[in-house]
Write a structure and sequence with these properties.
Blueprint lengths: L21 H6 E2 L2 E4 L2 E2 L2 H8 L4 H65 L1
Antiparallel strand pairs: 1-2, 2-3
């Protein structure tokens, strides 16, 4: 099973400080930091731009851990539900097969009784 995690929304980048590298200042557009390869993480943004002290980084790290925990729990929940659904589908298939056998058996008994009564 595979899934893709998509982050919706954006983080505002802190103001560019005087000691930030020139490439960082040039790469800030529209409140988010973009690199040649795509968006940088919040931690990378804060380190690159010189903003955000350790507390912001700890909060970001905590949010990432919570996000990882949430994704792990969600994956386990989905796997459990998928296994339950497959088990129920197998049970329903057994019931459908049994019902088909009962139908064939009932039809044959009715035909035998009908033949016996007409003879």
């Amino acid at each position: 099973m595979a899934f893709e995690a998509l982050r919706v929304g954006f983080y505002s980048a802190p103001r560019v400080s005087a000691h930030a590298p020139p490439s960082a200042a040039a790469s800030v557009r529209g409140g988010s930091v973009r690199a040649a390869g795509g968006a940088l993480s919040v931690v990378s943004e804060q380190l690159l731009l010189g903003g955000g002290a350790g507390e912001d980084l700890r909060e970001d790290e905590q949010l990432r851990r919570i996000n990882g925990l949430f994704l792990g729990e969600w994956t386990r929940f989905v796997d459990h539900e998928r296994r339950q659904r497959q088990r129920i589908e197998r049970e329903v298939q057994v019931l459908m097969d049994t019902m088909a056998e009962l139908k064939v058996g009932t039809i044959s008994q009715v035909e035998r009784c009908s033949a016996h009564l007409s003879a």
